Amino acid sequence: MEFPPAAQQELARRRLTVRGAAHARGGAGERPTRARGAGLDFAEHRPYRPGDDIRTLDAAVTARTGQPVVREYVVTGQLPVLVVLDAGPGMRLHPRKWRLAQGLAAALAFTALSGGDRVQVVTAAETTRASGWLQGVNRAAHLLGFLGAVRPGARGSLPGALAHPATRAPRGTLTVLVSDFLHEQVPGALAGLPARGQEVLAAQVLDPLELDPAGLGRGVTRLLDVHGDEELTVTLDDAARRAYRAALADWNAALGAQVTRAGGRWLSVDAARPLEQVILRDLIARGVIR
Hints:
alpha/beta, DUF58 domain-containing protein
């Protein structure tokens, strides 16, 4: 897929942020881990234990306190980042929503890869596909090619993808979800992620017609449930549009509260906005990346 060079340059010097549950693990990465040992950056002192390397003894502190004390250093590693992109029928129905969702998933995955993290992308269409775990900025072309080859399908959903073995990521993973989050089973699917030890970053992308159906006109309209293949006949008037907007606001508020209660982050963007604007105003300005 095409990814604006200016956006690549901006994101290449940025890093994804985490709030707590997600943490770096082993591997040749740049992020501080919870482990202590040999390293360059001093972390803390602790009492000497039999078997410790005597070269780690801090002579000055030991002499001052009369107790043998060793120096410990920060061990760096890689943050596991799982990016799950909804490529189901809700995306197929709105091409500009799909383009922004695809670009947003690429931006977040590229940022992680550039920052030395381990990244896997999973796409949810008729078949759930996984890129495998990638590391190193030299794998960016493979990652972007994987995402660019995805097309929205007539089946598939975010809840279905989260039940797939490919999304059973290690504890401490930052799980990035890019979807419209309009499937009725989404709350239940999200509820299982904290128990897996995953920190969630939920990025909702909605088409302007989903945000406000005024563009559909007035009068009797047939609506199709893309996930259930059911048709609903409604009369679109001012009252119906107000009720719809209120219901969508309540749905999003409940999902946002669910995600934030579990220590995650929620953001919602309008698919009419260009990707570069979303990167600057939603990702960077709100501290999702820094």
